[in-house]
Amino acid sequence: MASAAEAMPDRCADCEIRRVALCGQIDVSALRRLNTLSHTERLRAGSTLLWESESADVVGIVRTGLLKLTASLEDGREQTLGLAFPGDFIGRPFAADMEHSVTAIADSTICTFSRTRFEALAGEVPDLQQALLVRTFKDLDRARRWMLLLGRKSAGERVASLLLETAEANGADPGEPVPLPLSRQQIADVLGLTIETVSRKMHLFARSGVIALPSLRSFTVERPGELARLAA
Amino acid sequence: MASAAEAMPDRCADCEIRRVALCGQIDVSALRRLNTLSHTERLRAGSTLLWESESADVVGIVRTGLLKLTASLEDGREQTLGLAFPGDFIGRPFAADMEHSVTAIADSTICTFSRTRFEALAGEVPDLQQALLVRTFKDLDRARRWMLLLGRKSAGERVASLLLETAEANGADPGEPVPLPLSRQQIADVLGLTIETVSRKMHLFARSGVIALPSLRSFTVERPGELARLAA
DNA sequence: CGAACGATTGAGCTTCGTCAATGTGCGTGG
DNA sequence: CCACGCACATTGACGAAGCTCAATCGTTCG
Q1: Which of A6, A108, A172, B137 is the 20 to 30 A CA-CA neighbour of B187?
Q2: Taking CB atoms and an 8 Å limit, are B74 and A192 in contact across chains?
Q3: Which residues form the HTH crp-type domain (chains A, B) (predicted)?
């Protein structure tokens, strides 16, 4: 298996696929076939892999970095619909047109597949399809949870929710610095706010001692209970 | 096939399942098995089939009526995450806990299955799983499109968007009355607004001649182009 | 007819967006 | 090493959008 990856450095190592994308459920021969279909795509921060309302012929799995899914209105207003971390699946099998753009926030590598070939393989490998279905249900629930935030939470609650979620995703202890992979503008786009409001709320929390802001791209949680209460 | 439905009136007619849920893709024997597993659940408007953050042991397909998916905050604020029309799938195979409630808006009937038995069958019938996957991708894109509305559109744009979408779903011509299945409060919950703001915007549009409001539960589109422009 | 419920309308206020000025960190080139 | 410039972030002043509270209206159902 490793030898295949060495022989074809442009292919994804199948151990990676197995671990990250498919939870070790699919059998080795299908894995081999999946592997020969894959290409590693390198994406610099800021460049876009898939474009809203254009047809896409690739799907993929994020290997490293961070990407955002976004939709825009004609006048330029933009909303981030979700983030894609390593292991997340991107693209739309069984559908030609994208409903959102996929753009790298940090330099990223994506393990890509021809969409039609991936579809064909999925039809032949039920375990692959089931893994994808379970994953898609999770994405759907994540998106819907965010709808509650966008529709009903105040600016302060939104910012607190994001900080809390980021801290938890990092398994950070109180007082320990948590890296913040997003700029203020990107935070605003995720939360449906403006950059100014995000800045004000973060510093409000910092002044009240709930968090600390040691640098622009990190924070610490000083009073976890209070932060959770602020997140509503 | 019809005879099975007659012999067991509590079962869903399989022609219904085939047409509505599975796009005619699954084979007849699997259909039969699916059929013997199904129960028809009748739900009165206002009653809840599945509860947020409780475990659920059923999944199902809406046959008649209309349901809403909702999530709430502790203090009672509620956001509607989506609507389930006839043909829509509800519940979460491969997951025990619900992330949202499912409540009937109108009297409804749902063709339900034991979740675990449905999961087992899905594992055996790849076409069923694929149909479900395609459907789930569509739901995900619908949810994400709504995130753009919740995060970035003004109250007027939200109301116009909902009216436009409702009119289009009904294939209504200009001037023709469109039924509105939601109360003002339910519209507000879908759009992330208050009932007062919804009322004001609707009457604003009516006064300007873009729509007309012949009754509380219907409207007509008088100037489609203008309504589309208002929806942004 | 009256009560109950949902919808409308108005007045005031809060929150958040807008606009503008200022500040801060960082890389580049002198 | 320092100065500069640029991008990003912060802060303040102000206004508008939408929420809250409250009164009224209309409809439906006893």
Answers
A1: B137
A2: no
A3: 153-225
